[in-house]
Amino acid sequence: MTADSDAADRYDVVIVGGGPAGCSAGVFTARYGLDTVVFDRGNSSLRRCAHLENYLGFPGGIDVETFYDLAHDHAREAGCDLVDDLVESVTRPDADREEDAEPSGFVVETQDGRTVEAASVVAAARYDADYLRPLGDEDAMFESHEHDGEVHEHFDRTYADRDGRTPIDGLYVASPVESVSTQAITAAGHGALVGRHVVGDARRDEGYWDDAADRVDWVRRERARDPEWGDRDRWRDYFDDAAPDDLDVSDAEYERLREREIDDRLDMYVSDDEIDRREQRAHDRLLEHIDTDRIRAYLDRVDGD
Fold this sequence. Notes:
This protein has helices spanning about 20-30, 65-80, 140, 185-205, 210-215, 230-240, 250-265, 270-285, 290-305, and strands spanning about 10-15, 35-40, 80-85, 85-90, 105-110, 115-125, 140-145, 150-155, 170-175, 220, 270. The chain is an alpha/beta fold. Helix 6 crosses helix 7. Mean pLDDT is about 90; it is low at about 1-5.
């Protein structure tokens, strides 16, 4: 992405905030194949933490800088673009729109002069939601509080529903959301939930019905699969049986949706050799984030035992 481009960059998803909530949402949207960009420059609450000690999977805790490096590396690995820039405004385009027609998509402007168009925007910055004011729903988005005789406005943490959806179609909130945003691990979990709903809504827009739209992102052992479910025709029968009779798509579009879903289901199964390869690569990627001297000291201690 370049700041001096005449045409706006286009993404399926723009995420504002590269902390646990934003990166977690991005992992799910990008892994599905939605073009996703994460803007991360601003006031991070997690960077105020001296040492992250209650995030599952790190028995000795984890220093915040290494945690951020891991989170950003994961988001990039999933397919996100990470951009060090501050989002200043999010608007709905009005040009060339018929009267009374709903606007489609968003225009995102940044501090460094970037202009980005997106189908969906995920707010994931715990502090400062002023960039959402141009959307014109300030009375609902912000609430006033009086403190020491002064009136302060804050983003209403109940503006989004439990799934992160808002009254503005295509706008989601992963953070701030009530108490969910106060711990890194719950913020990450809620970000994942919101990311899944962004994916589900995108699948609905593609033509999938509700039960098929809510996709689960996981992999399974190929040897645990019943042989009949390795056959595409078996999956075609399953899809045809599940599809509603009143599904409003053409025959060609229906076939495209069905074959894509079958590809997705079959790709969920991996061989034992592939599992071993992924395990080794996962460990290698972790080692990239550990200080070399610490690795040497650990090996010396193990060898000494």
